[in-house]
Amino acid sequence: MTHDLDDLDRFIDAELSQPVMKEAQFLAEKIASEMGDQALAVLFYGSCLRTGNGAGLMDFYILTRDAQGYGDGALARAAHTAVPPFVRYFKCDFEGRQIHAKIAVMTLSCFEGLAQPAARDISIWARFAQATALIYAHDDAVQRTVHGAIRAAILTAINWAVCFRPKAGTAGDYWRALFRATYAAELRIEDQSRADLIVELAADRYDNLFLPALGAAGFMPEPIKDGTYTVPMSDTHRRAMKRTWIVCRLVSKSVNLARILKGAVTFDGRADYVAWKINRRTGVTLELTPWQRAHPLLAAPQLLLQLQRKKKLLKRR
In terms of DSSP H, where are the helices of the chain? Predict the structure, then answer.
């Protein structure tokens, strides 16, 4: 960081350095160790960070030195370079039980670029304007770069929040307007009520972030009453931003679709991931053969039959 520390920087420092549950700490250190010199940073985010639930599916972003960190094979690395990130399912034993994670791998430079206001793919700045813990950083320079990227993500987000909330509202109203727009701009199975839930489940966090983010972005909020604010933005600027948002929606949905199609082929450990999700939702444990793990799409009919048989057995008990 080349600027003087402000309230937003202090907020980010506190959040990135927040303590996390021991399962997340263990997984982050294990993944970083296995990736060796490629792993520059490990970010922990999502519902498990918010709830402290180590039994759920933990979400991590691993930021790497270069595309060599995307796994084996030149073709796979090319695919993940063209449409990052590389996503894998990871499980390991911890204190006598299994813990699970979904890991996205992306170069540090790509992550930094997608956090900026100029990014038309919203996926990174929209996610990392939300709570994040930096569990591992290779060195101080990496830590500063990650801090700068998170700051850029939050500044990008607050600008769009003001754009989408043109009238007065509470801090939560501004953040809800933002996340409703970002959810609508991506291909998601959840409806926009999920966007409201993001804010409701961390209301204090978004209240505390609101004014520091506005100040750092150069806005002059005007308090009205009962915790509501109006944030001036010219009609001309708002119209220009909304025209840009049309492009962001188109790019983000297209990139989302490309990621889904790529993931159907390249998601490392996808058979085990699906089996784990089925067990969590239904209580049915699928027994996977090595062939089924290697060819999950071809094995799908077999696994579906196995699931139906086991569900029938559970109903008879």
Answer: 7-16, 22-35, 47-51, 74-82, 108-114, 123-128, 140-164, 171-184, 193-200, 203-216, 235-266, 270-282, 290-294, 296-316
